[in-house]
Design a protein that fits this description.
By secondary structure, this protein is an alpha/beta fold. The protein has nine helices and 15 strands. It is globular, with a radius of gyration of 17 Å. The two termini are 28 Å apart. It binds zinc ion. Zinc ion binds next to loops.
Amino acid sequence: MAMLYSNIVMHTQSQSDDTITFLGTGGARFMITTQILASGGLWLNLSGTEILIDPGPGCIVQATKRKLRADKLSAIILSHRHLDHAADVNIMVEAMTRGGFKQHGWLLAPADALNTEPVIFSYLRSYLEGVEILEEGKSYSIGNVTFTTPIRHIHPVETYGMRFTTAEHTFSYIADTRYFEGLRHSYDSELLIINVVFVEPRPPVDHLSLPDAESIITEIKPKVAILTHFGMTIWQAKPGEIARRLSQETGVRVLAARDGMRFEMSQLD
Ligand SMILES: [Zn+2]
């Protein structure tokens, strides 16, 4: 297990305050370039440790608007290097480190986001405590949170989802991928967050569609599933209505994320 010794976290927050904030719910290029739905990723606050996942375009705007303080982040994690997941990584590193005046925090990303054409500027790397490469089947620890990257996804660039464990809960973030059998064996957890771009499968595009999401939810049977990262067709089909229908069909509580939605992990109790 790669241990990331981040700065000492103050245990002032009870675990019942654990939250996941959806900075944006748009996904794929047309939704992102129009910003009909915002983009910006997920902001976790778990057992007093704050982590940002996939800072897409507008992350800095959405975060500051919601009074989330980047200098409290312990880490930024990229599932992959695509723009809708990584465009704001540089400004968020600058914000996390107070403009580089406070060396602080970790960046975790697949190797291909960091090597030949890095998504992060070289001068910003020294602001960080360190950079950790995500690999299939590895475990990572940040403050009071541990997570694994159980399986490499099928997507045009190196991509991983994450399965998190806190003192009280487990949840998984299924980032961009084509559907494959390994997903259901890798993300068993109480809460599933699934990036669902299309209403119908669109081979050869490597994204999940609604039937894929329904299969994953039926197979894993989490307590709650949250759909996000919506493409244009999902938005037009009304995510809230889609979630209601999926709830009826799967027997699992399915929610459609909304821009700015804050999910309280105590809802899993
Ligand atoms: Zn992608």
